[in-house]
Amino acid sequence: MIEKKPQIIDNFGRPHTYLRISLTDRCNLRCFYCMPEEGIELMEKPSIMTLEEIIKMTRTFRDLGVDTVRLTGGEPLVRKNFGYLVEELAKLGVTLKLTTNGIVLDKYLELFQKIGLRKINFSLDTLDKAKSVFITKRDYYERIMRNLNMALDMDMDLKINIVLIKGVNDNEINDFIALTRDKKITPKFIEFMPFKGNKWDWSKGVSKEEILKTVGDKFGEIETLDNPKHSTSTNFRVKGHKGSFGIVSTITNPFCDECNRIRLTADGKMKNCLFANSETDLLTPFRNGEKIENTILQAIKSKKYSRDGMDVKMDAEHYEQNRSMISIGG
Ligand code: SAM
Ligand code: SF4
Ligand code: SF4
């Protein structure tokens, strides 16, 4: 009889097959919605997983049924020897995906083509240079746009992550939609989410209904597309446009029913949910030479059904105890 391998299944029967690994808490930008104004206390180098530890831990998760791995951060591409890491991870036979701010993406596009990494979420909140400097507190706009076009020319499967914030970039919704007319590009509008120190307030957020109204008023008919299983966005297309668009409504309409995501922070802590305050240290037992499979299988059992138990009002006492997004890995 063939022995069935254990799978990472929570108490709601949801198999967890998608691992998001934060490679670093360092970043070359300072987006105001992602990190506190005063910055974050950076992780000490020895507490960060080495590249070999990341590879071995990923192998462990793969053997427990994980088939998709997203590399994120901080900014994943600033991790030293990122090229080596991604080549080794590609050998594990999982589908690799990346979320990046694009600043140094040009250095890696050929390698990505070689190893078959095509799915990239490219964070770009504005098409306006001055606003980009305001949001990111750095001046890389030209480089980001050049690398976006380079990735498009190389036929990468690109989603554009846009965190919509009222009075900042909500007047650009239709500029992003206009890009979908002739380009196979997918803007993904993300509702502003609360994390430690990011001064969240839903009055600054833009809901799915508001987005659809804005797009419909300008472009007319919007088609609703089928959402792939486990999709975090509801997906649409303006009739006749080549590209589609998505809305990630974590606040107003969370998509937790079929959640299959787990996270591993750069310091080797497993997080069951983006909003989970509790974490499970995998790196310490791993460094002690202990097997971590059972710890992982056990840890998932404490996952709550949705948003770590927070309702739509989002409880400040709860999320202020979470990490800042920059050190979780979105
Ligand atoms: N540095 C990379 C980047 O920006 O693409 C990867 C890490 S970043 C934390 C991952 C994603 O989280 C980005 O698309 C970013 O826009 C999103 N994000 C950060 N803070 C957020 C917030 N408060 N609400 C919603 N999305 C947020
Ligand atoms: Fe850095 Fe990404 Fe956070 Fe912006 S959103 S500060 S690029 S980690
Ligand atoms: Fe999964 Fe938590 Fe995100 Fe819901 S909020 S989809 S439970 S990670």
From TrEMBL:
PROSITE patterns in UniProt: MOAA_NIFB_PQQE, RADICAL_SAM
Gene3D superfamilies named among the record's database cross-references: Aldolase class I
Known EC number: 4.1.99.22
UniProt GO MF annotations: GTP 3',8'-cyclase activity
Domain Radical SAM core, first and last residues per copy: 11-233
Keyword rRNA processing included in the entry's annotation: no
Keywords annotated in UniProt: 4Fe-4S, GTP-binding, Iron, Iron-sulfur, Lyase, Metal-binding, Molybdenum cofactor biosynthesis, Nucleotide-binding, S-adenosyl-L-methionine
Cofactor(s) listed: [4Fe-4S] cluster
The protein's enzyme class: lyase
Catalytic activity: GTP + AH2 + S-adenosyl-L-methionine = (8S)-3',8-cyclo-7,8-dihydroguanosine 5'-triphosphate + 5'-deoxyadenosine + L-methionine + A + H(+)
Pfam families registered for this protein in UniProt: Mob_synth_C (PF06463), Radical_SAM (PF04055)
InterPro entries: Aldolase_TIM, Elp3/MiaA/NifB-like_rSAM, MoaA, MoaA-like, MoaA_NifB_PqqE_Fe-S-bd_CS, MoaA_twitch, MoCo_biosynth_MoaA/MoaC, rSAM
Name used for this protein in its record: GTP 3',8-cyclase
Gene source species: Flagellimonas halotolerans
Gene that encodes it: moaA
